[in-house]
Predict the structure.
Amino acid sequence: MENQYYTLIEKQDFFEIIENKFGELAVFIDYRKDLPSNPVLEYDGKNTALLKRTPRIAVKLEGIDKETGSVLAEAEFIMVVELDGDTVIRTYGVPVETVEEFSFKGRETRADELERIKTKQELITAFGAVKIWKSGEK
């Protein structure tokens, strides 16, 4: 029987959210080794989001900029970009759900860690970013 609860939260201390001229959003986070499986982004409407990457792993995004939050609250989908330094390892689309409370059970840790030659700047340019918000704790 498959466990239906998330068992590990990886706290993402630094991340970027960008918007292109079409109002589409992308969030840049650290690369994780496991492949995402039915990922979804839950947003609390304030300053925290939870990217549920797999049935066992979720990534907590705290300190979301207020202006970003208003745009994120309206988004149906975002693009997630996982980086190893400035190298893009993977990109994928994720539905956004605004929630009052995160449906989540687990313990919080910080665990950051195959081949793609795009850099972060190349992807930002290709995405057509018109705004970039730096969010999270420094």
